[in-house]
Amino acid sequence: MIVPLGRALMAAEQPVLDAHGLAMWAYAVLLRLDETPIRSQAALAGAIGADKTRIIAVLDDLEERGLIRRRPDPADRRVRLLSVTPEGRRLRDAVQADIQRGEEELLARFPAAERDGFLRVLRALSADPPVTPKGKAGG
């Protein structure tokens, strides 16, 4: 039940992302970089679940558009520190607000108590993802 719902929600987000000129991975990067500067492209890819070789083009595009910054780490010049720029933050916030409006419209169909319970369960699951019997993260 969760996978089809996730796909439907991603499909609902796509027109919002398109309107703002962002791909889904680019939005994921902007969301993650705001939490804290990331020490390397590989660490960022791992944090958002992306392949580190495929994310380079996304980072190049975001940097060319002035939405992120990549600068050498003073402690190790082979490593690039990644951070979001003020323009990237503004774009991310606008996209996030539009997506949240859509989520609120979806959730408004349900009574407040059900909506609150659903969100509480989602937060708990995302904070502590289920584990398969073999001890590996499940999905």
From TrEMBL:
It comes from the Bacteria. One of its GO terms (molecular function) is DNA-binding transcription factor activity. Residues 1-127 form the HTH marR-type domain. One of its GO terms (biological process) is response to stress. PROSITE patterns: HTH_MARR_2. Transmembrane segments: none annotated. This is MarR family transcriptional regulator. It comes from Streptomyces chattanoogensis.
